[in-house]
Amino acid sequence: MKLETREVLLRAYAQLQRIIDELYEAHDRAVANNDDDDASLLVSRADKLYEEAENLNLIITELEER
User: Fold this and answer.
1) What does pTM read for this prediction?
2) Which residue among 6, 7, 46, 56 is least enclosed by CB atoms within 10 Å?
3) DSSP class of 65
4) How far apart are CA 47 and CA 51, in angstroms?
5) Does an H or E element contain 52, and which?
6) Taking residues 35-44, what's their average pLDDT?
7) How far apart are CA 66 and CA 64, in angstroms?
């Protein structure tokens, strides 16, 4: 894998992690405020992005091993 590709993928992964953290924090605030609909939406999106981030991490790892 070219260095530029690796760097872009790693930046994307890091950005996804920040977004995921933000969504989970917003979820926690929504739960604390008894905003169940918002909490459900936030955790659903966070979980989905978490899966995507994990898949991206696997791809990065596999390509680095080549």
Assistant:
1) 0.91
2) 7
3) T
4) 6
5) helix 36-64
6) 98
7) 5
